[in-house]
Amino acid sequence: MATWSNLNLQDSSSPLMEQLNFFHDHSLLVLIMITILVAYLMIMLFFNKFTNRFLLHGQTIEIIWTILPTIVLMFIALPSLRLLYLLDEINSPTITLKTIGHQWYWKYEYSDFLNMEFESYMTNIKDLNNNSFRLLDVDNRIILPLNNQIRMLVSAADVLHSWTIPSLGIKVDATPGRLNQMNFFINRPGLFFGQCSEICGANHSFMPIVIESIPTKYFIKWVKNFNN
Amino acid sequence: MNLVEKFQKLSKRRSFKYGTPFLVLILGGSFALKEFTQLRYQYAQKKTIRPDELEAEGVKMKEPEEVTLEKVYEKVKEIDIDHWENIRGPRPWEETQQIKASN
């Protein structure tokens, strides 16, 4: 989860987020190298003693400094396109989770099972324990089985919201009158936090999302005990 | 054939003779490795939740054909999205309704 002073992406708990992390590191490296090169060139302008008052053109070097950046851009573009298509791959999900955004809470429904619906409100400040996360903890967490393809269907009932979990690399807009679909895969047990990402009124910052991922065996037990 | 001469001179240099195979191996190797590492995600057919497992525990799971995007959309279409109340937030000098109610 995000704590204060985090500058980087959160640790990934999904293979796609892992790939996004790698791509981020790779392109950031390229950008840092370019920045250092340009900064060096600009600083050396102060200390350079070479002067040529009659410089008009330099065809060779102009060709070089057009072709070389094109090659650098290919190094960024190819992994980017690969990732773009990887994110859109079709795989068969085992579980479907439907979420409807309201002002200012989320309502979840496990469409595969009968009558599994619940609402998820942020825990009030006065109800927090000493080990709870302020503004991130909810009363009912989404429980999901790990190592399963999960299909997410997102919509809203009043205004725009956005359902996101950064460590799984997902962000889906919840638009009233529209159903958006997204697939993801959790490969670690644990708690994953996210917050509503589309301004939706006074309590937009106070409708977080928490996923608790557990082994499939315990998930089945939880489903069985849900209606009791 | 200035280019050919240049290449022949270059291929005599030690840094080229040792450097190029090394770089090709390291960079190309990572591309080749990608083909192997993606096998895990490409062929993962094992579905960990099986309907018979759930029947054994006594949980009923709907058929996958019943939970398609289109069917869920039909259900979502029925949600009333037009009658919502615009709840005004408190101004900085005001107290929220909650605090007013609990006072």
UniProtKB/TrEMBL annotation, chain A:
Record PROSITE patterns: COX2, COX2_CUA, COX2_TM
Of the GO CC terms on this record, one is: mitochondrial inner membrane
Cofactor(s) the record lists: Cu cation
Recite the UniProt keywords alphabetically. Copper, Electron transport, Magnesium, Membrane, Metal-binding, Mitochondrion, Mitochondrion inner membrane, Respiratory chain, Translocase, Transmembrane, Transmembrane helix, Transport
Which InterPro entries would you find in this protein's record? CcO_II (IPR045187), CcO_II-like_C (IPR002429), CcO_II_C (IPR034210), Copper_CuA (IPR001505), Cupredoxin (IPR008972), Cyt_c_oxidase_su2 (IPR014222), Cyt_c_oxidase_su2_TM_dom (IPR011759), Cyt_c_oxidase_su2_TM_sf (IPR036257)
Q: Where is the Cytochrome oxidase subunit II copper A binding domain?
A: 92-225
* Gene3D superfamilies tied to this protein: 1.10.287.90, Cupredoxins - blue copper proteins
Q: Its GO biological process terms?
A: ATP synthesis coupled electron transport
List the catalysed reactions: 4 Fe(II)-[cytochrome c] + O2 + 8 H(+)(in) = 4 Fe(III)-[cytochrome c] + 2 H2O + 4 H(+)(out)
Transmembrane regions = 28-51, 63-87
Its membrane topology is listed as: Multi-pass membrane protein
Q: Where in the cell is it found?
A: Mitochondrion inner membrane
Cofactor binding remark: Binds a copper A center.
The Cytochrome oxidase subunit II transmembrane region profile domain covers: 1-91
Quick one: where is this thing mainly located?
A: mitochondrion
Supply one GO molecular-function term.
cytochrome-c oxidase activity
Oligomeric state and partners? Component of the cytochrome c oxidase (complex IV, CIV), a multisubunit enzyme composed of a catalytic core of 3 subunits and several supernumerary subunits. The complex exists as a monomer or a dimer and forms supercomplexes (SCs) in the inner mitochondrial membrane with ubiquinol-cytochrome c oxidoreductase (cytochrome b-c1 complex, complex III, CIII).
**Function, as annotated:** Component of the cytochrome c oxidase, the last enzyme in the mitochondrial electron transport chain which drives oxidative phosphorylation. The respiratory chain contains 3 multisubunit complexes succinate dehydrogenase (complex II, CII), ubiquinol-cytochrome c oxidoreductase (cytochrome b-c1 complex, complex III, CIII) and cytochrome c oxidase (complex IV, CIV), that cooperate to transfer electrons derived from NADH and succinate to molecular oxygen, creating an electrochemical gradient over the inner membrane that drives transmembrane transport and the ATP synthase.
The record's listing under NCBIfam families reads:
CoxB (TIGR02866)
Homology family: Belongs to the cytochrome c oxidase subunit 2 family.
Write the protein's name: Cytochrome c oxidase subunit 2
Q: Which organism is it from?
A: Clunio marinus
Lineage of producing organism: Eukaryota, Metazoa, Ecdysozoa, Arthropoda, Hexapoda
Write the gene name.
Answer: COII
TrEMBL record, chain B:
Give yes or no: UniProt keyword Transmembrane.
yes
PANTHER family to which the protein is assigned, alphabetical: CYTOCHROME C OXIDASE ASSEMBLY PROTEIN COX16 HOMOLOG, MITOCHONDRIAL, MITOCHONDRIAL OUTER MEMBRANE PROTEIN 25
* Species this chain originates from: Clunio marinus
**Protein topology in the membrane:** Single-pass membrane protein
Which UniProt keywords are given for this protein, alphabetically ordered?
Answer: Membrane, Mitochondrion, Mitochondrion inner membrane, Transmembrane, Transmembrane helix
- The reply to whether Mitochondrion figures as a keyword in the UniProt entry is yes
One Pfam family name from the record?
COX16
Q: Report any one BP term from Gene Ontology.
A: mitochondrial respiratory chain complex IV assembly
**Protein family:** Belongs to the COX16 family.
Protein name, as recorded: Cytochrome c oxidase assembly protein COX16 homolog, mitochondrial
- Entry's localization field: Mitochondrion inner membrane
Recorded hits in InterPro entries, A to Z, give: Cyt_c_Oxase_assmbl_COX16 (IPR020164)
Extract one GO cellular component term from the record.
mitochondrial inner membrane
Task: Using the UniProt record, give the first listed, main subcellular location.
Answer: mitochondrion
